[in-house]
Write a structure and sequence with these properties.
Arc Repressor Mutant, subunit A; alpha/beta; 3-stranded antiparallel beta sheet; TIM Barrel; 2 domains; 24% strand; 17 strands
Length: 381
Amino acid sequence: MQFSQAIPLSLYVHYPWCIEKCPYCDFNSHTLKNDQEKIYLNALIKQLEQILPSIWGRSIQSIFFGGGTPSLISEEGLHNFLSQARSLLNFQPQIEITLEANPGTVDFNKFKGFREAGVNRLSIGIQSFNDEKLKSLGRIHSADDAYIATEKAKEAGFENFNLDLMFALPNQSLEQSLFDVKTAIKLAPPHLSHYQLTLEPNTAFYKNPPTLPKDDLAWEMQLICQQELSNAGYHQYEVSAYSKTQFQCLHNLNYWQFGDYIGLGAGAHAKITEPPAGKIYRTQMPASPSGYIEVIAKNKFGKIEQVTENEIVFEFMLNALRLTDGFELSLFEWRTGLKITVITKKLDYIQAKNWAYICKQRLVLTQQGKAFLNNVLQVFI
């Protein structure tokens, strides 16, 4: 593999604690039992120091604090972490710094503290504006909390923020799903995520499934909500992401365009390209906070493996085909280090199946291809 251009680099920071574990959540999160913040944040910085030789000279275009519930971090702790990270890394001038927030864990002063620490984008996990649905999802906040959190975020100076919504919730009607979207639009977020609730293994919902809308109804919910968002001026640029002009999430775009990213924290993944060696490496840290802290204290890196050529092709397609407008063929060569000829026959096949087309050197899925995305991806395994 040969890399002729620098690969964009982002930083993901995982905060693993929540007040309560939601029954649908399959992310690496743990119930908050005691205050380990200082020890954990020190471990994050130590891990970053260990990683520096592999990314030396490269700049960071975005940072994303995910979880868990990152809005549980103290303002002082977040400020100290970002200050130390800035001293170790080269932040791009217009860096995007996003923090996920639960409406039940924030107020104006906390939002203001996050803004002063350097966070310039929020992702607020609302999920629904219906108290009954929020209760069924195990959320700790109410619909009123969601309204208040959004307004307080604006008052604290956040012009760039995302609202997270879910649809096809337990016993949800078409009207209820549309109400959530219309309500979110009234709050005027520059970005909105809208995704279907699915039952993931190793979750409480998977073990004891709630009654969810049938597939046909879920599909109707998606279509009518997509139209509502489009009418309100939101462009769908990815499977579940909608934005106003110039408010796409730079951090997530870097994932979908197969950029590089550092992963700090318990259970965090990373993908790092080493152009001189012509190799791409993937790392993963231990999932438990205590296990993570122990590994970092021993100056270890967790699990490290080189990504094979076949894995690179599949992972690129797995991400890039989520983009509504597709991707330029040159992006494949830039981000994978491979020639487009290695997938020419597969591209011909998906075009022959009417799953995709190439226009002006850009690969775009057809409506049929989007409906059969899993089938399309199977071609690249």
